[in-house]
Specification:
The protein contains seven helices and nine strands. The protein has about 230 residues and is α/β, with parallel strands linked by helices. A seven-stranded mixed β-sheet has the order 5-4-3-6-7-8-9. The protein has a two-stranded antiparallel sheet with strand order 1-2. α2 runs antiparallel to α3 and α2 packs across α4. One of its GO terms (molecular function) is protein-L-isoaspartate (D-aspartate) O-methyltransferase activity.
């Protein structure tokens, strides 16, 4: 007969040891100092920013800087957006658990992960194959089963899954791509940087009402350029 103490030890051996989240306090500090203090107050967005482990979305050489409030290089001439900008753009679309969201510019998958913590479905497109494939693998490994990643030209959107309740564009376009506006549900919201790399870009909110696009300028920004254009895939 197994003694109670022995049985307890055996049980403890069977329980997987969870890795300590050594960056939890740094995420809390990032949210408190870089996001809440700057006006983002949507509870779901703040929770998502506290939850998603940004250090898992950056190259190993950038891990120690993962929770600083600035963009970081992720390879292929691309960057991961600063945490505040990710939170702000997410709040702008007014996310809720029933929404289906399209993201243009997957990058390393961080913005998609933040969205996936809040909304029902995320469809995200990345034009650079190595980034898109890496992001897809990372998101799957982290358990984001509500995210679908496609390697392709984001200019054309993802018509098979349209219409979308919201669209988040993480690269600067000179104008709103018509296919994206067409795939935005009536009453939906799109947040997109407008402008080229040679001039000031403006983060812009597009609200679609009765088929018309209502535009609101939000703030000056600096994003990597939108690539692909209207070329056929």
């Amino acid at each position: 007969m197994i003694q109670p103490v022995v049985a307890l030890l055996l049980l403890l051996l069977l329980i997987p040891i969870q890795e300590k989240d050594i960056y939890k306090e740094r995420r809390e500090e990032m949210v408190r100092k870089s996001i809440e203090r700057r006006g983002v107050d949507d509870k779901a967005v703040l929770k998502a920013m506290r939850t998603v482990k940004r250090h898992l979305f950056v190259p190993s050489s950038q891990v120690e800087a993962a929770y600083e409030d600035h963009p970081l290089p992720i390879g292929a001439g691309q960057t991961i957006s600063q945490p505040y900008m990710v939170a702000f753009m997410t709040e702008v679309i007014r996310p809720n658990p029933q929404m289906k969201v399209l993201e243009i510019g997957t990058g390393n998958g961080y913005q998609a992960a933040v969205l996936a913590e809040i909304v029902k479905e995320v469809y995200t497109i990345e034009i650079i194959p190595e980034l898109g494939q890496s992001a897809a693998k990372r998101l799957k490994t982290l358990g984001y089963d509500n995210v679908q990643v496609k390697v392709g030209n984001g200019y054309h959107g993802w018509p098979e899954h349209a219409p979308f309740d919201a669209i988040v564009v993480t690269a600067a376009a000179e104008a709103v791509p018509p296919p994206l506006l067409a795939q935005l549900k009536d009453g939906g919201r799109m947040v997109i940087p407008i402008g080229s790399t040679s001039q000031t870009q403006t983060l812009t909110l597009i609200e679609k009402k009765k088929g018309k696009a209502l535009t609101t300028k939000l703030m000056p920004v600096l994003f990597v350029p939108f690539t692909g254009g209207d070329k056929k895939e």
